[in-house]
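Morning. Coffee machine broken again, so started the prediction first thing and wrote up yesterday's gels while waiting. Chain of 287 residues, entered below exactly as on the submission form.
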Amino acid sequence: MNQELDISATPVHYAPLSAVPSTLRIPLAARALGDAMFPALALGDAHAARILTALGDDGTQWLSDRHSVYGVLARTQRFRALAAQFLQANPDGHVVNLGCGLSNYFQWLDNGRARMTDADLPEVLEIRRALLPVAGERHAVLPLDLTAPDWWDRLGLPATPTGAPVFLFCEGVLMYLQPAEVQAILRTFGERAPAGSSFAFDVMCWLAIGRAKQHPSVKHTAAEFRWGPRRLSELTQAHERLRLAETFNVMDDYGWPYSVMGPGFRMLFGLPFYALYVLRAEDLGAV
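Came back before lunch.
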């Protein structure tokens, strides 16, 4: 494990982030300070508190939204577990965090052989590079615009769908993109990903679209929810190779009212209000 990440929490001055990148403070605060609130989901993030302090944020504004803190911890646990499961089967595998913000999953996933790519918009990477150095030669930090048609190639992902599988995840991002942009991303994954590759992401359903100002944390940013599936079939319609492999209902274990409303919502509408999904790219020749 690389241990060269102990830099000071000297305040960092930077230009204000644009709408969607500005939401990165929400998961950062949850990972920095949420362990004490929800010990059963404690992450033990070694860097989040220092980074939050360096941004001049005491986390108070975000911690008042306990539901979101729980959701961030729960989804982080799930993304981490899914990536670790992939690396158990593929120890030399490549894990890619699309829209990484200021998260540091490699602290948990580095098995001494795996490769990790953290990617985000240049405005985010400017802050990230000041606060969170690259963790060795198997760790890359690359600029990313998921709405650009060549994002796959710019990340150095497999040129053809015949190579070793990869694990991609996208945390707290897709709900802020336009529906056509999300479908283009999923289509690229379906077209380009080697068989056995996975793409994990979280999203709220269509009922959240246009209602960011009603969200206790996101309302403090300029971001807006622009996409959410109405039917589960929307997750795989972009390409024939896509299969919905797993669905995780992030908030069900929070307690009342989610433990009751969650199952009821799924029965009524056919999908969760908020969930983490895993898509898999299949080998059509083997189907």
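The CA atoms of residues 14 and 127 lie 7 Å apart. Going to sketch it on the whiteboard this afternoon.
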